[in-house]
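Obj: model holo form, ligand = NDP.
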Amino acid sequence: SRTPVTVTVTGAAGQIAYALLFRIAAGDMLGPDQPVRLRLLEIPQAVGAAEGTAMELDDGAFPLLAGIDITDDAAVAFDGTNIALLVGARPRGPGMERGDLLEANGGIFGPQGAAIQAGAADDVRVLVVGNPANTNALIAQRNAPDVPAGRFTAMTRLDHNRALSRLSAHIETPVSDLARVTIWGNHSATQYPDLTHALANGTPVINRVDRSWIEQEFIPGVARRGAAIIEARGASSAASAASAAIDHVRDWVQGTPPNDWTSVALPSDGSYGVPEGLVSSFPVTSSGGEWRIVPDLEIDAFSRERIDASVAELAEERAAVEQLGLI
Ligand code: NDP
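Output (holo structure tokens):
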């Protein structure tokens, strides 16, 4: 049988991990023939709760689950890891300024980046879910300068999936018939969900939807979906975030379908005027285990303005973490 792939999940006692770990163990991320070994990282106070999650994973009797290790030591968690899902992050507390939040997360993602560089497998792939995800990914990446920068990504797939779902409902077309939706920029309220190039059954959707629907309902609806879920559910979106993380890694490893693309935040190569190195969301395809930014898309004036606004926020976050000495 195949050698197990080692998958590290941080924040393993949290809500997203609670949904995510079962999907990984079931083979939804790496396929039905690929055994996995799980490494769960938690802060010391939450190791006991992570043990509880691991007991439930044991009770799933998953044929693909080759073992579970639980630790509060990043060096142990990332030793030999192939896939690192950085879910645990410091939440914004009452009265916390953005600088405090970035600093607290720098204290988490800096050492995790260093531990990845020191011990992870040569093929390591990193997905940051914990917020502020783009800048947390930047911090981890800059603390792992010997790892190819493109191995560090942040998740905008949930925003992408939300955009597909909103569009599907509005034009009454199944998600499976939609393609080429894009999320640009930061995973934050400034993100730009872009339908300019979107297709339904191979034909452009842009002429079938009103500008006012795009600007007043679609864009804010995607960006504010997380808040709407908290209001309805009394808890933040965890299962859909986990599902998006599964989609992200699956597409990274197994490739994107022909004639479609997805959205991933990754270190910019300067494409579309996004300053080099900023971890910003782009339309991307995947093949051979690598993301490639979709080239040469026409960007209209409205899109330009929205992309620039979100990228400006990312540039400010980068300047703030530079000033804090985190990168
Ligand atoms: P969740 O599992 O619900 O969320 C974890 C992170 O994912 C948060 O930063 C959250 O951001 C972010 N996130 C990204 N996208 C979404 C989305 N669409 N919906 C909801 N969240 C999203 O948090 P819990 O508090 O349940 O669990 C976090 C765990 O992480 C705790 O057990 C804690 O102990 C642990 N932790 C572990 C660390 C480590 O392993 N070294 C370090 C820090 C914490 P947002 O806050 O903006 O919602």
